[in-house]
Write a structure and sequence with these properties.
Elements: H1 3-11, E1 17-18, H2 21-34, E2 43-46, H3 55-62, H4 64-67, E3 71-75, E4 109-113, H5 127-136, E5 141-144, H6 154-162, E6 165-168, H7 175-184, E7 188-194, H8 204-208, E8 213-214, E9 223-227, E10 235-237, E11 240-245, E12 247-251, H9 267-273, H10 275-279, E13 292-294, E14 308-312, E15 324-329, E16 348-353
Parallel strand pairs: 2-3, 2-6, 6-7, 13-14
Antiparallel strand pairs: 1-9, 3-4, 4-5, 7-12, 8-12, 9-11, 10-11, 14-16, 15-16
């Protein structure tokens, strides 16, 4: 994709959402609970994050010591619609070309944090200390990029090669290319994406092969994000325009939720006690074009069925690779969409129980 198309993508509605600090905090903390050393001595790269606007930068820099980071790298894209307006960083540090809070000439920037501390001596560590460090070039780097900050640029790829873990909210329209790049350079990652991205032909095989999986946040509902599109606002909170985005986290970092077994009843118990089974007209029926049964709700997967089952994509929220095996996605044996009595249900993942050893 050309730089011109990238600029168009950045202006698209589905690319202009900004992640809340609390959502980043909750997700990252879940990995720390499972393994306290997840980020220890690691170089974290936020490669779609202007530090002026990014809560990813804010979270990782404020928790730099507690997480045990070795280095934090952030790079921004030019132009940024809200550069130098959200976070309390002081412009003008290092060799930055950012002129003022309201400057229209905003350059793509690179910030590298190697150390943090209470620089101003007020007894606490805050973004003000980081701003002071950057202005004085003490142990940290702040300078403009020569290119526009596209994650596929030579500058950004060079930084990517140095990183251990990529954490960001990439442009949804460029998600396929973003994931392809991460795998090309064999990086750990924790990123946000549209839920429907699991249906992409470039993405689902990686999920099937357990090369990537959903994060710890529940699949239900969406993520509330800040939007600057005045025509696409769901609610206003403290003067901030918010949009509920159907998104979730994807990662290849291990976490505890991924290994929690799904408690199930037998098929007969579900038929007897589960109201969803009683109301459904298609549940447990065989597909026309595949030897598998239809299970439209994750919580009614029968514990005693040894064959293949078709489950909704929301199953991935509960997917335990120790308990289930993913067979394929969506298509029957004839290569066409799965069907029951000639009708096609919504996207289905074909799975089966793993045999107990």
């Amino acid at each position: 994709m050309s730089r011109e198309n990238l600029a168009k993508a950045k202006k698209a509605k589905n690319d202009e959402f900004y992640t809340q600090y609390i959502d980043i905090q909750k997700e990252v903390e879940s990995y720390i609970e499972y393994n306290p050393d997840t980020f220890r001595n690691k170089i974290v790269y936020c490669n779609c994050d202007d530090p002026y606007e990014s809560n990813f930068f804010r979270y990782f820099v404020l928790n730099f010591k507690r997480l045990g980071l070795k280095k934090l790298i952030t790079t921004s894209y030019k132009p940024s619609p809200v550069a130098n307006t959200l976070l309390e960083l002081v412009a003008g540090g290092g060799n930055s070309k950012v002129k003022s809070k309201n400057s229209l000439e905003v350059t793509a920037n690179k910030i590298i944090i190697n150390s943090v501390g209470d620089i101003d001596g007020d007894g606490e560590f805050s973004l003000k200390d980081i701003a002071q460090q950057l202005k004085e070039n003490k142990n940290n780097e702040w300078e403009p990029l020569k290119e526009d900050g596209d994650f596929r640029s030579e500058e950004c790829i060079k930084l990517l090669k140095k990183a251990d873990i990529v954490v960001t909210n990439p442009p949804f329209s460029l998600y396929r290319e973003f994931v392809e790049q991460i795998f090309k350079y064999d990086k750990k990652f924790l990123i946000i994406a549209n839920k429907n991205s699991v249906t992409y032909k470039e993405i689902f095989p990686k999920i099937k092969e357990n090369k990537m999986w959903t994060g710890t946040r529940s699949w239900g509902g969406g993520m509330w994000m800040q939007t600057f599109d005045l025509n696409d606002v769901d609610k206003v909170v403290n003067g901030i325009n918010m949009k509920n985005v159907p998104s979730c986290w994807f990662t290849n970092l291990d976490h505890g939720r991924r290994h929690q077994p799904l408690n199930l009843m037998t098929m007969e118990e579900n038929k007897k006690f589960n109201s969803k089974v009683k109301k459904s007209k298609t549940i447990y029926k065989k597909y026309d074009n595949y030897n598998a049964i239809e299970v439209p709700f994750t919580d009614v997967i029968p514990s005693d069925h040894e064959g293949v089952m078709g489950v909704p994509i929301s199953f991935l929220d509960k997917y335990n690779p120790d308990q289930f095996e993913i067979i394929k996605f969506r298509h029957g044996a004839d290569g066409k969409d799965l069907a029951i009595n000639g009708k096609t249900p919504y996207f289905r993942i074909l799975i089966k129980h793993k045999k107990k050893k």
